[in-house]
Amino acid sequence: MADDEVTIERPGFGARLQAAMEAHGPLCVGIDPHPGLFDQWDLPHTPEGLERFTMSCVEAFAGTVAAVKPQSAFYEQFGSAGIAVLEKALGALREAGTLTVLDAKRGDIGSTMAAYAVAYLSDHAPLRADAVTLSPYLGYGSLRPAIDTALGTGRGVFVLALTSNPEGASVQHAGGPGASVAGGIVNAVREDNRKAARKGQLGSVGMVVGATTGSAVEHLELDLASANAPLLAPGIGAQGGTADDLRRVFGSALPHVLATSSREVLAAGPDVAALRSKALESAEGLRELLA
Ligand SMILES: O=c1ccn([C@@H]2O[C@H](COP(=O)(O)O)[C@@H](O)[C@H]2O)c(=O)[nH]1
C-alpha cells in the first residue's frame, strides 16, 4: 500500500440496520405482489401491473421504514420482465437510502453459492441488495462464499433458523433440546458475528426466526441473544402471528428483532398515502412493544 493510501472500512450491514431501526422502528415491509392483491389493487396480471404495484410500494416505503424485502418468487414468475421490475425497485430503494433484503432463500453447493454471492451481494451486480436470505440445508459451511462476500462488501445475510411455517419444525427441531439443527445454525452464526460483537456492533450474519414459532426457542434451548445477529421475524399478520408473540418468542433477544410483514401492510393499498400510514402505524406499534 502506498504511504498516502488509506483503507476505509465500510460500515457493516448490522451497524447500518441498527441505525435504520433506531430511526424508523424495527419494521421491514415485504413486497409480495400476490395475485389477490393485483385484483384488490385493480391491476392487470402483467409485467406492467407488477411494475405499478412495485413502484407504488417503493414510493410508500422508501424513507419510511427500516428495510424493504421484495420476495423474488413473485418477480421470477414473470420471467425477464419481472426480474427487470425487481432490479428497478432495488435500484430505487438504494437511491433513496432504504435498506433492502432480497428474499430469495438461496442455498447450494459452495461453487454455486459463489455465483449467488456475485449475483446479489457484489458491488456492481444489477440485482444487488443490502442483504439476502439463505437456506442452510446443504450445510452451513456451503454458505461461506455468500457470507464472506457479504462481510467484505458491507452487506448481510439472513440464514433460515426457525421458519414461520408449521412444516419447518420437522427439520429444524431435529436433534431436540441442546442439539437441534436450528441450534447448530445459531452457534455457527454466533461465530461469524464475533468480530462485530468485539466492536460493540450488531453482526451482519442474521437469522430468520418466525414470529409464529411459539415456545420453540425456549424448548430447543437456543441462545439467540448471544449470537449478536439481526433476527428477521416473519409471520405477523396474514400467517397469524401478532406483535405480542414477538415478546414470547424472542425474550432477551428482542432488541435484535426486525419484524417483517407483507400482506397485512399491502392490504392497505393501492393508495400510496394509505400504504405509508399503515407502515408507519405498524412500525410505531413495534417500536413501543420492543422498547
Ligand atoms: O420463515 C419464513 C421465511 C420467509 N418468509 C417470507 O416472508 C413473507 C411473509 O409474508 P406475509 O404476507 O407477511 O405472510 C413471504 O415473502 C415469505 O416467503 C416467511 O413467511 N417465513
Automatic annotation (TrEMBL):
Q: Show the GO MF annotations.
A: orotidine-5'-phosphate decarboxylase activity
Q: Which residues form the Orotidine 5'-phosphate decarboxylase domain?
A: 26-278
Give the UniProt family note: Belongs to the OMP decarboxylase family. Type 2 subfamily.
Biological processes per GO annotation = 'de novo' pyrimidine nucleobase biosynthetic process; 'de novo' UMP biosynthetic process
The species this protein was found in: Pedococcus cremeus
Pathway membership:
Pyrimidine metabolism; UMP biosynthesis via de novo pathway; UMP from orotate: step 2/2
Q: Which NCBIfam families match?
A: pyrF_sub2
Q: Which Pfam families match?
A: OMPdecase
Record's superkingdom? Answer: Bacteria
Q: Per its UniProt record, what SMART domains does this chain match?
A: OMPdecase
Q: What is this protein called?
A: Orotidine 5'-phosphate decarboxylase
UniProt keyword list:
Decarboxylase, Lyase, Pyrimidine biosynthesis
Which Enzyme Commission numbers does its entry carry?
A: 4.1.1.23
Name the residues annotated as catalytic in the UniProt entry.
105
- Per the record, what are the reactions this protein catalyses? orotidine 5'-phosphate + H(+) = UMP + CO2
